[in-house]
Amino acid sequence: MRVGRGLRAFEKTTPTIDELLKKPIRELGLKLEGSPLERFVNQLYRELERKGVKRFRPLCYLSTEWGCPSGEPIIAIPFYLANPELAHLEAEMDDLEDARQIMMYLRHEAGHAFNYAYELYRTSEWRDLFGPFRRPYREDYRPVPFSRRYVRHIAGWYAQKHPDEDFAETFAVWLTPRLKWRERYRGWGAMTKLRYVNRMAKNLGLVDPVRTRGDKDEPIEEIDDTVAEYYRDATRSERLPVDLPLENDLSDIFKATKKKRGIRPAADLLRENRKAIIDKVTYWTGMQRPLVKNVIRSIEMKVAEQGLVAEVKAEREYLVEVTAYATTLAMNYLTRGKFVQP
Predict the structure, then answer these.
(1) 311 pairs with which residues across the strands?
(2) Does the pLDDT value for residue 3 go beyond 50?
(3) C or N terminus of the chain, fewer CB within 10 Å?
């Protein structure tokens, strides 16, 4: 989930950021303890305690991205969240997680870790509810929007991606404070899964995990790449913006003329609201976030190339229409395999 603006962000660095870019990640001296992340990890532990899960405290460590190595009861957290300057750089390069999202990801990864710590995935009841743990992962999975067989937590109907993700998402919903999952999911097929998580938590709350330790995947202490190299590699692996014939549609949306007062470049409006649009299109369509980002970037580029402008007083209407337009493109792709039909 990285690098939305590419290496252009390196052109506007401060001296402090410039020094960080030159350093190997393993030499940054980053630690979770005492960093801005520590309070979030402590909040996760408090939430587990309040739910009666008293013997399970997954180890958290810094790595390149969010994750829980398969079968390992530990949680990887992106290193840039442990340092304010790196977080600022990440915000320039990509979408920086806010406090709400950090806790959502922590609860989700805690679900994986709980599953592995007590080896629930090995039981027949788990398989009957969630499916085979060894089912191959598919990055291009096509979810069924609004299915009530699954909870809703991370954007993109993520519980439908894999049985392991289904459990992690169910655990995260169950753990979220003040969610009132019994009311929210009353009558849903997902309720059976939520009750299972609730029962397992009660049964295992005072039981030591079967596995208390795990092997870390890409801990920062082992990463020789500099920060700059890390972002350059991420940029090279990112998909290029999709080339779509959008000119006529976009000129219908942004009809204002440059002769009017109270106008500004439409590309600026879209750029300022990029993250919010991407968040909503990803959440409601289930399309993979990197592809949604590239669709929005393509729209921005076309709008800039055409020199389209937006009336300041009508900005809300423009954003609603662009979001609806991008959602339609995404659903075309998901259902027909193409953004625009010939």
Answers:
(1) 263
(2) no
(3) C
Does residue 246 sit in helix, strand or coil? Answer: coil
Place of tokens 């090995």: 122
CA distances from 214 to 60, 69, 109, 113, 306 (A): 11, 8, 14, 10, 53
Euclidean distance between the first and final Cα of the chain, in Å? 31
The residue type at 30: L
Q: Cα dist. 332→325, 328, 340 in Å?
A: 11, 6, 7
Residue 205's identity, in one-letter code, is: G
- Model confidence over 220-259: pLDDT tens digits? 999 999 999 988 876 555 555 566 788 889 999 998 777 7
Residues contacting 76, CB < 8 A, separation 6+: 60, 61, 62, 63, 64, 65, 66, 67, 68, 69, 109, 216, 217, 218
DSSP per-residue string spanning 175-195? HSTT--HHHHTTT-THHHHHH
How far, in Å, CA of 220 to CA of 61, rounded? 9
